Amino acid sequence: MSYDIICGRQPVFEALRAGRREVRRVLMARNVRTEASIIAQILKQAERKGLKLESFALADLDRICHGGNHQGIAAEVSEYPYVELDVLIEGPGGRAPLLLLVDHVQDPQNLGSMLRTADAVGVTGVVIPRERAAEVTAAVVRASSGAAEYVRVAQVTNLHQAMLRLKDQDVRLAGLEGTPEATLYTAADLKGPLGLVVGSEGQGLSKLIADTCDALLRIPMEGRVGSLNAGVAAAVALYEARRQRAV
C-alpha cells in the first residue's frame, strides 16, 4: 500500500476524525506547543487510535512536506478513498441526490474550495475526471481545510459517459455557463435529483459537456471581469440549490 503525507493542523485533525483512511503515523516538529487546542485534540485522537507519534526537526518536516505550510504537524495516510459513481446516485436518507460534477478543473486550490463547499452544503458526492484534472491530493485536502476527508468523490475515466449514466438514472444535469441565453440560476428549478456541472478555469464547460446538460445556468455579473472563479461559482449555485431544496 502506498501512502500520502497530509500537512497542516486542520487537515491532519480531520483525517484522524473522519476515519476514512488508514493513518500510519503522526509527524510533529519538536518546537510545536502541544497545549494549543487543535494540537491537543490531534494528540488525543492519535493516542486513542494507538498511533505512532514521531518528532522531527523543523527543517526535516519542511522537507517531508516539500516546503508546504505544515504548521508543525503532518500525518502519513493511505491514498484518498475514491468511491464508485453508482454509490453517489442514491441520496442519503432517501433524499434526492445533489451532485457536483467538475469538468477538468486543474487548480488544486479551486478543487479544494469546491470540496469544502460541497461538505458545507451536504452534497451527495462529487465527480471528477481521471485525466487532465486535479486529483484529491494533499494540496487539495489542505485547500479544503480537511473537508475532503468527508466528501464522497468518484473519479471517472470519462466525464461525458458518467453524465449519460446519471441521466439514465433520472438525474437532471445543470451546467454553469455565462452565456446570455442561459437561465438565471435563481430562476431555475434546482430541486429533485440534480447534478451541477462546473467548467474548468478559463475554458468553462467543453462543448460536449455543455451539450449533454439538460439546462445551462448563468450567474449575473455586473462588474468588469467576465466570470467568477470556478470555486466561487460552484459555491453560489450549490447554496441556491440548498436553499430551494430546504423549502
Notes on the protein architecture:
By secondary structure, the chain is an alpha/beta fold. The chain folds into two domains: 76 residues, 60s Ribosomal Protein L30, Chain: A; 162 residues, Alpha/beta knot (3-Layer(aba) Sandwich). Helix content is 35%, strand content 21%. It is built from nine helices and eleven strands. Strands 7-6-5-10-8-11-9 form a seven-stranded parallel sheet, with helices on both faces. Strands 1-4-2-3 form a four-stranded mixed sheet. Helix 6 links the parallel strand 6 and strand 7. It is elongated, with a radius of gyration of 19 Å. The termini are far apart. The model has no long low-confidence stretch (mean pLDDT 90).
CATH fold node name of the largest domain: Alpha/beta knot
Give the ordered list of helices and strands.
Answer: EHEHEHEHEHEHEHEEEHEH
Query: For this structure, what is the CATH homologous superfamily of the largest domain?
Result: SPOUT methyltransferase, trefoil knot domain
In quaternary terms, these chains amount to single chain
Structural class: alpha/beta
The overall average pLDDT, rounded, is 90
Shape: elongated
